[in-house]
Amino acid sequence: YRIWCNDPDRSLSAEYLDTLGGLSGIATEALQASTLLPVHRSITGGADFQHGVALWILCLGTRNRRRCGGLQYCPLCFAEREPYYRIQSRLAWHTSCPIHNVTLLDRCESCHAPLCPHLINPPREDIGHCHRCGDMLSSATVEPALPHAAAFQQATDELFDGHIQGYGNSQLDLRAWFELAHWMLGILRSAARSNRPCLSGFFDKLQVSLEELRQPATGLPFEYLNPGDRANLLSKVWSMMLAGPDKLISATAQEKIRPSLLMPRSCHLPSALAQLATVLKVSQKGGGGHPHLNSPRSPSSVLMRWNR
Fold first, then answer.
1. Which helix (H) or strand (E) holds 171?
2. Which pTM value belongs to this model?
3. How many CA atoms lie within 13 A of 58 on its CB side?
4. pLDDT (tens digit, 9 = 90+) per residue, 64-76?
5. What's the rounded Cα separation, in Å, for the pair 190 and 267?
6. What does DSSP assign to residue 65?
């Protein structure tokens, strides 16, 4: 079984867990608990991993034993003790180290290779080195974490401990929180792609600057992005959550935001913003128009495909 050609963090079959437990001396239950399956079930409500991208779980981008990313680490943590990777290193909302308050890294600073500790060959056995160039990962330059992204990370982690987070008058559990955050990520990325000046007033009312919102060069799903791009988006999500639902609904009505931005076909309104659907219908009386499907793609869209 070529275990490194797959993603063992997502799940392993009972057969392979029993075999691995027998070889390692670790209980099967402990091995199962060390995978991402318990986290995924908490987010989705009991479903096992399916093929493709799993929401809020970083993608490794596996091709044979090679990877495109999916692991992240704190250089200061690696310098203080024997290096190891936490389960949190695979979670997409984790962009900073809660101990040292610095932004996480997902590549070697020297050769820019993704982190692939399973490719380290003997005689080197320390996973604190880059598998490609051998540089010490703990010597990388660190940058301060974005405060709002770190606040979102902490609030989300508290939900796994049984806490409830407030949004306006609503009390959100873990699944409702992720539903709301995923919807906000979607409209932020749509706004960054369209780059329409008419949206600036809407986001200004929510304390979000469109000028500071970076559109990732590849346009890939959130779970493929590097820590810096994810932190930039999550900091804006936290600002929108702090603004609350009343201010969001009021800004939608005042700026006459199109339903296509806040109610895309691929996503539905979160339960905490159910009232927004009525406001959108009222504000769009007399509007309309259909895009020209045969028009050429924009230069930014073509460049995004090249970057992929």
1. strand 170-172
2. 0.89
3. 25
4. 999 999 999 999 9
5. 12
6. T
